Amino acid sequence: MNQERVFQVLVGPHVSEKAAVVADSSNQYVFKVAVDATKLEVKKSVEQLFKVKVDSVQTLKVKGKVKRNKFGFSSKPTWKKAYVRLEQGQEIDFASVE
Predict the structure, then answer these.
(1) Which of 4, 11, 80, 96 could serve as 32's disulfide partner, Cβ 3.0–4.6 Å?
(2) What is the pTM of this model?
C-alpha cells in the first residue's frame, strides 16, 4: 500500500462514550475510515501511522440519518467505522503522534 493511501484510509478517531468504554475494557480503538477501505488496509494504516501491532479489525457502515429542513427532507452521508483491537501491551497515545 502506498503512502498516500495510508493517509486516505483513516479519517480520524471516533470519540464517544461507547468508544471510551471499549478502549478501557478490551484494548480497542474506534476510527472513522474511508467508505471504500478494507479491513486489511485499516490494519496496515494503523500499524504504519501509530507503530503498533494490530490483533484484529471489525468494520461497520453507519447509515446516514434522514433530517428535515425547510426544503423537505435530506440525508446525512453514510460513513464507515472501524474497531481496531491491539495486541496485549500495545496502546495508542493520540497526543504524541508524529
Answers:
(1) 11
(2) 0.88
